[in-house]
Specification:
Length: 873
């Protein structure tokens, strides 16, 4: 006879021979809850459900089921995921149909989830009750390689018909094991069966340390525990465990952003500028735990400035985001940091470009206190100094970059409060001298010196009490931008302060409320010496750099201020089961310009609305509309770069789509979007009289734009072996720069963008993967003639219609192979990541000779292999 109980998601039940037990997922440790209310797992209700012990059987068995539990707590589907045991499987499936649950909830909102549920079958107990005897065998079960403690694991002594289940710390205890030779047997889904001999001495307690070997090295998560709350209309969430080995990303989690629907390709090696749904670079931002990252990649594209091993996942929101975000008209990427581990953990990584390392641990004797320290440095500078002889191009500072992160968490046990401190630093530097002008243009010579970097200090406080949640984060940032090319230079040193605070209240089962403040105060010392033709804007074409016939414009060191506070409020209303209506409104104020004079003060009000209908466990439909604004950025409101009178840009965003989950683990989404852009800041040919002087307007808000398209995503979610996705975007992005002009293509208009990614785990620690991309070539403006300036002995181009040509389409195949060796306390990963495997060098642009009489394509990278080693413990 058996009885069944429940231990679901993160729950746990003490050992009992016939109760249902939690099933461990062979995956990295459970992650911290998202900033919104945590998911409360489903709980069994009603009488205990008993699974009948099959007649004629004599041994024990464990049957693991995967259950789909809908928002009403009903079991809609059940299947066996443990190895076949026909008679026990039939009994467990029959019992599963009688299970009833209180549904899982995010706050007060019921959710449909997929869980694992186990029935343990044990023969009738021995005459003497082991529970009444002393514990004489105990121990700990861990995962081999990571040494992660495993909960919910069944440890048995078959000869004595004794069974125990590990607790949340991986500990187990057995009572009444007969003295003498005994055999411990440990079985769990995702792990190899473990059998080990044991000698039990009478009157003594024997302690065992058991290591379970994963069936596949670094196994994927195998259970969907409930999606992140769908607060955003268009959200794609990718876990770090899913993307660390995506081909072509060189192990950099943030480079996967370019492989998602709606994102344009802007760099030959991935990364680069963030262009989402046809918006300008700079119109979209990347946030880390609610505050922006100013420089996402080293040298624009090589690798990200934040260590990916400290992250939990990436939320990609291409449009119609909630009122909680403002001061941008494109899309956004929210990068979430993970919960730090209690036990020591770390890694060291070495490849052909850089070395990185990370270590984390709890602090002994200080409950709830943990820390992590990570760093990375390139050694391209050492390689180039040794490999490149001094000649026409001489490095004064070879390309060098580094970054580091320090994080300290304090989560007092039993407290409603939690604190997190995070310090970030990043720096890139390059210097070279052109001793002889290049063949393309004899007028180019001199030095090139650049340095970019930032430092951030972040302090985050979280409070949870019943239906109330408060999250606040304050940040200080120091940003350095320094560029010098021959006689042109730009120097920016900014010291900025940011604050974001959000309050959430689950007012009832049908209504939840959110409100917050979001402000940024940027103060920068700016100096420059440049020619206006060097400041190329979107839609402008300058093939040969600054025009030599232009005078230099100079800005002495000047204090520039940009203050942008925002207030927002939002409600989530659930009038009917499965239907969620989310109205919101945001008020943004903008004060920008030179700190003492020429300051612009303006404000915008942005209402937003999103609707989501979960029609069934398979289908969901969504739609949204909203207004968005973005204050003038960078030098646009500062003379002599721009005009202090420019106003915020505005955008109307519309989205409608559907989602489908036809079978467990398979997700399909299709969305149509439209965006109307107004008040775009563009270059102006006009002049104005200020203080008796006639000055160029330089910039105004005469531009308009329109973007429309369709995005499709078919995604195979994580299983034991396989994951991947197919993403396709059709889009058209157009602009009008001045009234009366015709529509033209946006600089990064890419009509078709197809990305296919697949990765598969093989036995013996092998993993292979591939990424294929096909993308329409970027528009470009042709040079149709040139004119000669005899006094300066230079040629100037004559351009055709703006963006009336395109470079050939881009296609590329990237391949990655990993081999993982698992040892008792650590793992070693050797990987080969090959960019452009079939060596088809893509066309990036068109280059012209110094007199514009000849042209040739600028080709991208050839095949580029990256070989590396990563050891983790």
């Amino acid at each position: 006879m058996t009885r069944s109980g429940a231990a679901l998601l993160t729950g746990f039940l003490a050992a009992a021979p016939a109760f249902a037990q939690a099933v461990p997922d062979p995956r990295p440790e459970e992650k911290a809850a998202a900033p919104s209310a945590p998911i409360a797992p489903p709980q069994p209700v009603g009488p205990a459900v008993e699974a009948e012990y099959p007649p004629g059987e004599t041994g024990g068995a464990r049957v693991v089921l995967e259950l789909d539990v809908d928002a009403r707590g009903q079991v809609t589907a059940a299947r066996v995921v443990s190895p076949p045991q026909p008679r026990f499987d039939e009994s467990a499936l029959a019992a599963a149909q009688r299970l009833r649950f209180e549904p899982a909830r995010r706050g007060e909102e019921p959710l449909a989830v997929r869980i694992q549920f186990a029935f343990n079958f044990a023969p009738p107990p021995a005459p003497s009750a082991p529970a009444e005897q002393a514990v004489n065998v105990s121990g700990t079960v861990r995962e081999r390689g990571s040494r992660r403690r495993l909960s919910g694991i069944e440890v048995a002594v078959p000869s004595a018909a004794l069974v125990a289940i590990t607790d949340t710390q991986g500990r187990f205890e057995l009572r009444g094991v007969p003295p003498g030779q005994a055999g411990l047997v440990v079985t769990a889904p995702g792990y190899q069966r473990l059998e080990t001999p044991l000698v039990v001495e009478s009157g003594k307690r024997t302690d065992a340390s058991l290591l379970l070997e994963p069936l596949f090295a670094n196994p994927f998560e195998a259970t969907v525990e409930g999606e992140r709350d769908r607060e955003e209309l268009s959200r794609t969430t990718i876990a770090i465990s899913e993307i660390q080995r995506i081909p072509g990303a060189q192990g950099d989690a943030l480079k996967v952003i370019e492989d998602l629907p709606g994102v344009a390709r802007t760099s030959p090696i991935g990364g680069g500028l963030l262009v989402i749904r046809g918006s300008n670079p700079g119109d979209s931002l990347v946030y880390l735990d609610g505050e922006p990252i100013p420089l996402l990649y080293h040298f624009g594209a090589i690798s990200s400035t934040v260590n990916p091993d400290l992250l939990e996942g990436i939320d990609f929101i291409p449009g119609n985001f909630s009122a909680g975000y403002g001061d941008l008209v494109g899309g956004l990427v929210e990068v979430r940091s993970r919960k730090l581990r209690d036990e020591p953990h770390g890694y060291a990584n070495l490849n052909l470009l850089e070395a990185s390392a990370m270590v984390e641990s709890s602090v002994p004797g200080a409950p709830g206190l943990s820390f992590a320290l990570a760093g990375r440095r390139s050694y391209i500078d050492y390689i180039l100094r040794a490999a490149v002889p001094e000649g026409d191009v001489r490095f004064t500072v070879a390309p060098r970059y580094y970054d580091a992160q320090l994080r300290v968490d304090f989560r007092p046990p039993g407290s409603k409060h939690a604190l997190q401190f995070l310090a970030l630093t990043s720096d890139d530097k390059l210097g070279l001298v052109l001793s002889r002008p290049p063949d393309q243009d004899p007028n180019i010579s001199g030095n090139i010196d650049t340095e970019t970097g930032f430092q951030q200090l972040r302090l985050k406080h979280s409070f949870r009490s019943g239906a109330l949640a408060v999250d606040s984060i304050a940040m200080f940032e120091r940003l350095l931008l320094r560029f010098a090319v021959a006689q042109q230079d730009l120097n920016v040193l900014s010291r900025d302060v940011f604050l974001r605070s959000t309050v959430r209240l689950e007012a009832s089962d049908a209504v939840s409320l959110s409100a917050g403040i979001d402000l940024a105060n940027r103060r920068a010392i700016v100096s420059a010496s440049f020619q206006q033709s060097l400041a190329v804007r979107e839609g402008e074409f300058n093939n040969q750099g600054p025009r030599i016939d232009e005078p230099l414009t100079t800005l002495r060191p000047t204090l520039v201020n940009r203050f942008s506070p925002g207030l927002w409020a939002e409600a989530r209303i659930r009038p009917l089961p499965g239907l969620t209506i989310t109205p919101g409104v945001r008020l943004d104020a903008y004060v920008y310009g030179v700190a003492v004079r020429d300051r612009t003060r303006t404000a915008t009000l942005s209402p937003r609305l999103a609707v989501r209908w979960e029609a069934s466990p398979v289908w969901a439909f969504k739609a949204g509309a909203g207004l968005y604004s973005q204050g003038a950025r960078n030098g646009d409101p500062v003379r002599p770069f721009g005009n202090p009178e420019v106003l915020p840009e505005r955008a109307l965003q519309l989205t409608a789509g559907a989602e489908m989950r036809p079978v467990p683990g398979l997700f399909f989404s299709a969305e149509a979007f439209y965006k109307r852009l107004t008040d775009i800041v563009v270059r102006s040919p006009e002049t104005e009289v200020i203080g008796g002087q006639t000055l160029p307007v330089i910039l105004d808000n005469a531009g308009v734009g329109r973007v429309h398209g369709v995005e499709v995503l078919l995604r195979k979610e994580l299983t034991d072996r396989l994951f991947g996705w197919l993403a396709y975007t059709y889009s058209r992005s157009q602009r009008i720069d001045r009234p009366g002009e015709s529509w033209r293509l946006f600089d990064f208009d890419q009509t078709h963008n197809l990305t296919a990614i697949v990765s598969y785990k093989l036995p013996r620690g092998w993993q292979i993967g591939a990424r294929f991309r096909f993308i329409t070539g970027n528009p470009e403006t042709p040079v149709i003639a040139s004119r000669y300036l005899a006094p300066l002995d230079v040629y100037l181009p004559v351009y055709g219609a703006t963006n009336s040509n395109r470079v050939p389409p881009f296609s590329q195949l990237d391949v990655r192979v990993d081999k993982v060796w698992t040892f008792d306390a650590w793992t070693l990963d050797a990987y080969l990541d090959v960019l452009n495997a079939y060596n088809r060098r893509p066309v990036e642009a068109t280059l012209y000779s110094y007199d514009f009489g000849q042209s040739q394509f600028l080709r991208g990278l050839p095949v580029l292999p990256t070989l590396g080693l990563k050891g983790s413990f």
